Every structure is written in structure tokens, then in C-alpha cells.
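request received
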Amino acid sequence: MADFRFDDQLLVGYIQGKRYERENKTENDVEIPPAFLITDSDGAAWTFGPQYAVHNSEFEFSVMRNDVDTGEVAKRIVYKKGVVWIFGSYGWKGFSRSRRHFI
Amino acid sequence: MREFSVGGDGLTIVNGVVTLVFVNPAAAPSVNLEFLRLWCSQQGSAVSAQQRVEVETQVTGFPTLVSATPRKLKFGDPAASTISGGTAGAAGTSGINASAEGAGGKTVMFGDNFNVLNGYLWVATPRETIVMPAGSASGLGLFLPAAAPSLTNWAVGANFGEI
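response:
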């Protein structure tokens, strides 16, 4: 079992069951792709999931937060001014302050 | 719709150039491989640093790898991938985390750079997918052409379809 640090200042998220530790949230305007992951201020790790749909000749991938499928698909995930935004055939949606859904 | 994922995590990579994941199509006649996604990330370092990355093809001699068997993305798929895990990078095999790069020439398809804190993800639009035909003399790899700043706890992978 890999060592891990007990540090309540660390931001900790999970992708494919793997623990990702970060000292800081992701910088402004980082975008998936080409980034693989985004760490938000809660420490949650965002990335694309394995499911995809084709819309207007482009792939839209499932959006995962800490290995949980958010039920959304997107072409892009962008971290901007502390908010996770997704972009797809529907336009832009931002992750709600309640941490429950995209608006 | 037959898609597979090959990769690994918790990897300690060599301190130098390294092929992270390598997939070599099977000998003809067989299915062709359509690459949909390639990625790498690390959690060994929390220090911001830029890293070069390349998607490249390589002819024999191939890298020496850790065997990695493709996993089904469609659990109901009754058959395994035509690609099996292998350490020699030979036709019809896949592997990760090369310990030696092999003498075979590499051809860079495209290069990019990423911040190691964010990792690297390549996804294609349908027309941009990379297709490696069965019987091809080369395999496809995700390659770091410069040593990474931190060598521990890398995760790498590739998703491909059989067409």
C-alpha cells in the first residue's frame, strides 16, 4: 500500500480509484483537454469518464467528479474564477455552489 | 462498438526519456486499432513544472515494457481484445512504462507540453482519431522525450477501438 500523508491542508481527490494530492487548487483557465485533471477548491478531482456520445461530429465525454459520474457530458471542462465550467452541445454550464449539479 | 483501455497507475518511471504506453497492432489479417484517447498524470510531486510529451510510432526494435492487458470498456463484450499484454512491444501486444527504449526508429506524430500538476489528456474528434492498421510495421506510443521532474506515482493509459 502506498504511503500517504495526513495533512488537512492538502487537497485530495480521486480518479479511477487513485488518490491525487495537491497543495493548491488548479490555476485559472486550465482546460480539459489537454489537461487530464482539475482540482477544485474542495480538492475534488475532475476529469472525463469512459462514456461518450457523438454530437455534431465531435465527442462529448461523461464528466466525472471524484470518480462519480455527474450525469453530464461535455467537450471541455474549464476551471475559471473558482468555478468548474463544462461546455457541450448545450453551451456552457457552471457547477453550482451547492456542489450538486450544473446550472 | 468494441473499445478497450490499457494502462496502469502507481508507476515509477525511469529518469530519462520513457515510453509510457505502447500498443502494437496485430499481424494482418486482423482488426485495425482506432485510438480515441491517451493520457498521463502524476501525483508524486505537488510542484508546478512543465513537461514535454509526444505521440509517436516506433518500428522494431521496440521498447522493453511492463506487460499490460487491455480491459474491456463494454463489460458485455463476449470476447477479449485481439491485443494481449506483452513486454517486448511485439505485434499484437501492449505494455506500459518502458525500462529500455529499443533501437527502433521513432516517428513523432505530434508533440505537446503540459504542466505535471494538471496531467496530459489527448482526445480526438472523430476525424482526428489515429488508426493503426493490422500488419503495420509500427506501434503507437505515448512518450516523454525529456526526463520528468518527479518519477513516482504516474498513471498512464490509452483507449482504443477495434474496427
